[in-house]
Amino acid sequence: MTVTFANGASAGGDVLVAADGILSAVRQRLIGRLPARDSGLCAWRALVPGDRLPEHFASPVQTLWLGPGRHLVHYPVSGGRTINVVAFTPAAPGETVESWSAEGEPEDFRAEFAGWDGMVGQLLDTVTQVRRWSVLDRTPISRYVHDRVILLGDAAHPMLPLFAQGAGQAIEDAAALSASLEQAGEPATALAAYNQVRVPRTAQVQEASHDRAQVNHLPDGPQQKARDQAFATEDPLRHSDWLYSYGAQAEARRAVQAELLRAH
To answer: Which is catalytic among the residues 75, 144, 244, 246?
Structure first.
């Protein structure tokens, strides 16, 4: 495989791993540009110094606030010195800015959660800078391997961030790919195994990400009360065991063995 860059430089190798993101140039060359779909949501992200807030905000837990049409998450980073704030609210009509660096207005951010619990207001009152962007979606594809070209991460399976698995699934991709190549010893078998295990796995996580928006944003009523009761009684880690206990390397090695048996 040989790749030529816009500046005229080139590089070669046994395989090409296209991990060039949601606007992947390699994917466009293979299957064309995937049109974005408007999810109807926009995302907000802010970092707040922990010393501006009461000590309990630095507790090493994730706090999730749910309400009709929107939700907010906050948790400490950097050993509690900083609080990361992420929220999702309805997008404005025609809002299609897809950029993690797009600036939002702190006043608008606070207005989205006006009337919520005082702890939310206390947190948002400390926000002086916030990012805001549209949450756009793309149709899943069923094939991540084209000859010796491998799509990985957002180049293969961009997903809504509502399950916090975009980076996680890219790491699983890399683990599965490395294990496949090591186990098979040659590209063809390894890449067939990679495609076999990663397409259904990432599709399952994509579907879960879609479902989370509906669950998190239920209007007040019987469904919302049932959701809250389920959240109050379930073990979060056990409930998500299908996600967090998955062994990408082990699954890839099993797929390689199956490919080798099929070949013989």
So the answer is: 75
Residue 194 is among the residues annotated as catalytic for this protein: no
Sheet holding 149-151, edge to edge: 16-18, 149-151, 145-146
pLDDT 10s digit of each residue in the chain, 264 long? 999 999 999 999 999 999 998 888 999 999 988 777 778 899 999 999 999 999 899 999 999 999 999 999 999 999 889 999 999 999 887 777 667 678 999 999 999 999 999 999 999 999 999 999 988 877 788 999 999 999 999 999 988 888 889 999 999 999 999 999 999 989 999 999 999 999 999 999 988 888 888 899 999 999 999 999 998 888 877 888 899 999 999 999 999 999 999 887
Residue 96 shares a structural domain with residue 168: no
Same domain, 122 and 154: no
Q: Are residues 182 and 238 in the same domain?
A: yes
State how far the Cα of 259 lies from the Cα of 151, in Å rounded to an integer. Answer: 20
pTM of the model: 0.87
